């Protein structure tokens, strides 16, 4: 038997219907045109992540050899991040239980062989605000642990249209993406997955 997930973890299956998912993908295409996806480097080692990233909103999460941070400009183009789509600020208003809008939305693109190691979202100034995540395209095998890297983890499948909220205790829980299951969705033109995470 698996232990229950940490308090404040919410899994909203099928939050976005197929039409809303298509509209979000269109919005992401517009964002990527203005602020292209790039492969960030890990601090210290300089090793490239397998996930490609960009952002929308006032601030964007970036990583390079000097560390992780939020900044108002795209590290490659030097331009500001595109505006956050209304559907995402509406989602935040509905599920965040937080009185202020999100400041940043990280756009992750997983090609079929991309993955994201277990980590905590720790670079945000406001830990009382949750992280709200949207899955689009192929299913992800998502892993959720506890507050310590050594805590037991559980695996769950995030399907296109699903929303996950990491709030309360779960806000600082370890999580990651073990792998993508290519061919599980026809939403995107090619196999892969988009994940959008809003933060403050
Ligand atoms: C993240 O932790 O930044 C992304 C999680 C996900 O892709 O579901
Ligand atoms: Mn994360």
Shape, principal axes of CA atoms: globular
Name the ligand types.
Answer: succinic acid, manganese (II) ion
N-to-C CA distance: 34 Å
| Classification by helices and strands | alpha+beta
Average predicted confidence as pLDDT: 96
State the assembly state of the protein chains: single chain
Gyration radius (Cα, Å) is: 16 Å
Which sequence of SSEs, written as H and E, runs from N to C? Answer: EHEEEHEEEEEEEE
Low-pLDDT segments, ≥5 res: none
The number of helical elements comes to 2
Number of strands: 12
What share of residues is helical? 10-25%
Strand content: 25-35%
Largest sheet: 6 strands, antiparallel
Strand order of the largest sheet: 1-10-7-12-5-2
Detailed description of the structure:
- The chain is built from two helices and twelve strands, in the order βαβββαββββββββ.
- The radius of gyration is 16 Å and the shape is globular.
- The strands form three sheets. The protein has a six-stranded antiparallel beta sheet with strand order 1-10-7-12-5-2, covered by helices on one side.
- With 200 residues, the chain is an alpha+beta fold.
- Bound molecules: succinic acid and manganese (II) ion.
- Manganese (II) ion (MN) binds at residues 119, 121, 175.
Topology:
Elements: E1 9-12, H1 18-34, E2 52-56, E3 60-64, E4 67-71, H2 86-95, E5 104-110, E6 116-119, E7 131-137, E8 139-144, E9 154-158, E10 163-166, E11 175-181, E12 193-199
Antiparallel strand pairs: 1-10, 2-5, 3-4, 5-12, 6-11, 7-10, 7-12, 8-9, 8-11
The structure holds succinic acid (SIN) and manganese (II) ion (MN).
């Amino acid at each position: 038997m698996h232990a229950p997930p940490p308090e404040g973890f919410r899994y909203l299956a099928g939050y976005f219907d197929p039409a809303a998912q298509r509209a979000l993908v269109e919005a992401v295409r517009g964002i990527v045109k203005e602020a292209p996806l790039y492969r960030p480097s890990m601090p210290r080692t300089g090793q490239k992540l397998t996930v490609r990233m960009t952002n929308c909103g006032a601030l964007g999460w970036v990583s390079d050899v000097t560390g992780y941070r939020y900044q108002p400009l795209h590290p490659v183009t030097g331009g500001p991040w595109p505006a956050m789509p209304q559907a995402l600020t509406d989602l935040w208003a509905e599920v965040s239980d937080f009185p202020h809008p999100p400041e940043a939305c990280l756009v992750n693109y997983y090609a079929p062989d991309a993955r994201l190691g277990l980590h905590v979202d720790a670079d945000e100034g406001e830990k009382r605000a949750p992280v709200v995540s949207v899955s689009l395209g192929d299913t992800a095998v998502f892993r959720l642990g506890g507050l310590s890297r050594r805590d037991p983890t559980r695996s769950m499948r995030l399907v296109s249209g699903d929303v996950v909220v990491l709030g309360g205790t779960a806000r600082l829980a370890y999580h990651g993406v073990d792998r993508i299951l290519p061919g599980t969705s026809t939403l995107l033109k090619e196999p892969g997955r988009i994940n959008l995470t809003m933060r403050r």
